[in-house]
Write a structure and sequence with these properties.
The structure is a single chain. The chain is built from 5 helices and 2 strands. It has one domain. It is mainly alpha-helical. The radius of gyration is 20 Å and the shape is globular. Helix 2 crosses helix 3. A hairpin with a 5-residue loop joins strand 1 and strand 2.
Length: about 130
């Protein structure tokens, strides 16, 4: 029975990875990225400006690399754009480039949620014992 459950869990994990890759691939097709660049930038952008926008934000990386970064199993990119601004997958306005984590993505987010739930559970357990 345990082998049956393990086999089912493995098939579910494999199916989830395959489905997320297919959806990720379809959303990262070049026409979709071009629409994104024109929406975020300017609808009258020429082809060179679209290429520059996509290159500066890491959208032109190979799809398996972007998928690995999205999952959090590959380190996030750090790119210095043509405008001199440093951008990265794990860099936000609150975090500097030197303090940014190397890995970020779905896998890291799940770990953060698990740690938060453990702390909440421990806190509520401690409050319940008082």
């Amino acid at each position: 029975m345990a082998l049956f459950v393990l086999r089912r869990l493995a098939v579910m994990l494999f199916t989830a990875l395959c489905l997320t890759f297919v959806v990720f691939f379809l959303t990262n097709l070049y026409p979709n990225l071009e629409k994104l660049a024109k929406t975020q930038g300017n609808f009258r952008m020429n082809d060179e400006a679209v290429q520059s926008y996509l290159l500066n934000r890491g959208y032109l990386l190979p799809v398996p690399v972007k998928y690995g970064q999205w999952l959090g199993v590959l380190p996030g990119y750090v790119i210095e754009g043509t405008d001199g601004e440093v951008r990265g997958r794990c860099i936000s306005s609150e975090i500097s480039v030197s303090d940014a984590p190397k890995y970020c993505g779905i896998y890291k987010a799940i770990g953060d949620i698990q740690r938060a739930l453990k702390m909440t559970f421990r806190g509520s357990l401690a409050l319940g014992l008082l």
